[in-house]
Specification:
Layout lengths: L4 H18 L4 H8 L3 H8 L7 H11 L18 H7 L1
Helix pairs in contact: 2-3
Amino acid sequence: MLKTKLELSIYFADNLRIIRKEFGLTQKQVADYCEVKKQAVNRWENKKQYPHYMQILKLCMLFECSSEIFFMDRKIIPEKDIQKLIKVY
């Protein structure tokens, strides 16, 4: 079943927060890498704004993962398995 834009942004926000914390990074560190303000990363994680595709590509480079990992349903992938999946990609 196709996901709505709202569902994808919710998955993105939650997964970004989980992955960022798994890597032990602050919002500021992620923002610096993506060349945005810390407030932008905060808005992404709080479902208030969606990043431009270029920032998604930078996040993939930072976390060495496919963009798919950000849009997966957490019900399907438990939090404890996220790090394993990142290493697979």
